[in-house]
Specification:
Layout lengths: L2 H11 L1 H25 L4 H11 L11 H12 L3 H26 L4 H13 L1 H5 L6 H21 L2 H15 L6 H11 L3 H27 L3 H8 L9 H15 L1 H9 L8 H17 L14 H10 L3 H27 L11 H8 L1 H9 L7 E4 L2 H11 L16 H4 L10 E5 L5 H4 L5 E9 L2 E9 L3 H16 L12 H5 L7
Parallel strand pairs: 1-2
Antiparallel strand pairs: 2-4, 3-4
Helix pairs in contact: 1-17, 2-5, 2-6, 3-4, 3-20, 4-5, 5-6, 5-8, 5-16, 6-16, 6-17, 8-9, 9-11, 10-11, 10-15, 13-14, 15-16, 19-20
């Protein structure tokens, strides 16, 4: 071995240098994330979930309540994007600290490896740049806390760690149903022994009371979460190997190619780290099966990524991790520059790109709201024809703006909050990002006039419908919604369904 390679190996293994690099990376990446969170435009999904914080409840149309509770707390500080995204900003940094702690416990004589793993995790594009607040924010946090406790439990066999794993699993289930994949992973690992079954029962008993909140909410609210996640969003699925390829490529992109190939080469060590491996192999394998019928969202897999990187830390040298960190940091640079360009460049710079419409709408939403409020008749309401514009305009208007029309299977929060009987006889101003055909709206009003507005070179449309005909809307829209999205399976007990009761609609058979 020559002198340069010896120095390189020492540079990677030196725990003092590794710790210093980790501290500086932690601080710099945190500053980058704070800047992105403060200045990146609010997205439609974020604005939709923001309303869950404005109207806190025990559950919501699409998902369990945890992100609504989180946003209620953050919104009590401020509705500024930095406040709403602050927990997300801290999320990945806290997980990086947790990974360092776990790896130091697993390999106490290799501190350099632990700190280089933490540094690598901090510069991954998704941990550095995904600072949006969504239902995945608390999900990722509680999945990691539960998995952390589970790993500590397998290391010490102390019951208290399994209690923690169960409590945090329950919190994850109150965030999103994908947490159920973590429960399956626990079962796969623990079902092999009598002691394992006892720990599994402890986890189940500690998580069940929290999950019961979601069950109770659904039973009294049309089983809306179940209808969305299990039935309505899966009706048009079909076998496709194209989506399998998409999933595999997405995973290589998220993991990064060099770490992915390291993972393939480390397959022989998986049996030695079974408690860690099961936490990502089981969910990722199930996602692979699911990808045969539908597209797997990038955000679906993020909650289980920390455990994959923890395994990489147990099977890599400090020098390997140092190289991966350097390559990953360069890999993250163009991602950051693209987001910085979206923030800093004027919207006119994007006029020749397909993104121009989206960029103008998101950056100029407050101006659009101001234009919609001009000359608005007394008592008139503003609505939009899809949930994304309705949610984004609601955030900037500081009031809830409903969605006019049938909508789709997702984002049906209006069904819980809005009573269209209250708009009978009123004028409704309806916004759309696409041209409005007045013939589509005329059945619901005595008259319809369509207008346009120009905002930063883009055209947006709105229609003024006078004398809203609620009875026609109920027959054509609300009944259709009930038949499409409220066919609750007969075996589910229904103790209340506000949507059907509010509009005096029968339960579809």
């Amino acid at each position: 071995m020559n002198l340069n390679s010896t120095r390189s190996l020492y540079a990677g293994a030196d725990p003092v240098r590794a710790r210093q690099v980790f501290k500086w990376t932690f601080a710099i990446t945190l500053l980058i994330k704070l800047w992105l969170a403060a200045y990146f435009p609010m997205t439609g999904d974020e604005a939709f979930f923001y309303q869950w914080g404005v109207f806190p409840d025990w559950g919501y149309s699409d998902h369990p309540p945890m992100v609504g509770w989180l946003l209620y707390v953050l919104n009590s500080v401020s509705s500024h994007p930095l406040s709403l995204r602050f927990f997300t900003v801290m999320l990945w940094s806290m997980i990086a600290l947790g990974l360092v702690d776990l790896l130091r416990r697993i390999s106490p004589f290799q501190e350099g490896v632990a700190y280089w793993l933490g540094t690598l995790f901090l510069v991954l594009p998704f941990s550095l740049l995904l600072n949006l607040v969504t239902t995945d924010t608390p999900l990722i946090f509680f999945i990691f806390l539960s998995g952390y406790c589970f790993i500590r439990g397998t290391m010490s066999e102390k019951t208290l760690w399994y209690v923690g794993a169960g409590i945090f699993l329950g919190c994850a289930l109150l965030s999103k149903y994908f947490a159920g994949l973590l429960a399956i992973a626990y079962f796969v690992y623990l079902c092999r022994s009598r002691r394992g079954w006892l720990n599994l029962i402890i986890i189940a008993l500690c998580s069940a009371p929290l999950f019961a909140i979601t069950i109770a909410f659904n039973a009294h609210h049309c089983w809306s979460n179940v209808m969305f996640n299990m039935i309505n969003r899966n009706e048009n699925t079909e076998l496709s190997f194209y989506t399998v390829g998409e999933y595999v490529l997405m995973m290589i992109y998220l993991i990064t190619p060099w770490v992915f190939f390291k993972l393939l080469r480390s397959g022989g060590m998986m049996a030695q780290r079974g408690a860690i491996v099961v936490l990502f192999v089981v969910p990722f394998s199930l996602f692979l099966l699911l990808s045969m019928e539908k597209t797997i969202g990038l955000h679906w897999v993020l909650g289980f990524m920390p455990f994959l990187f923890l395994f990489i830390g147990t099977s890599s040298s400090a020098e390997d991790l140092r190289k991966y960190t350097k390559w990953t940091a360069w890999f993250a640079v163009p991602h950051f520059l693209f987001l910085a360009a979206l923030i800093l460049l004027p919207t006119s710079m994007w006029k020749d790109y397909a993104l121009h419409d989206d960029i103008v709408f998101h950056k100029e939403a407050k101006t659009i709201v101001a234009n919609l409020r001009k000359d608005l008749p007394p008592g008139a309401a503003i609505m939009a024809r899809a949930y994304t514009p309705a949610a984004l305009l609601s955030y900037h208007a500081d009031e809830y703006l409903p969605t006019f029309g049938q909508g789709k299977f997702h984002a049906r929060q209006d069904d819980l909050l809005v009573d269209f009987k209250n708009y009978a006889g009123k004028t409704i101003r309806i916004f759309d990002r696409r041209a409005i055909n007045p013939a589509e709206l005329e059945p619901y009003f005595s008259s319809v006039t369509v207008h346009t507005m120009q905002v930063d070179g883009m055209t947006f449309w709105y229609a003024d419908g006078k004398d809203f005909k609620y009875d026609v809307y109920r027959e054509r829209i609300l009944k259709t919604v009930a038949n499409l999205y409220y066919r609750i399976p007969s075996f589910l007990p229904v103790y209340g369904c506000g949507f059907l009761e509010r509009y005096d609609l029968p339960r579809p058979q």
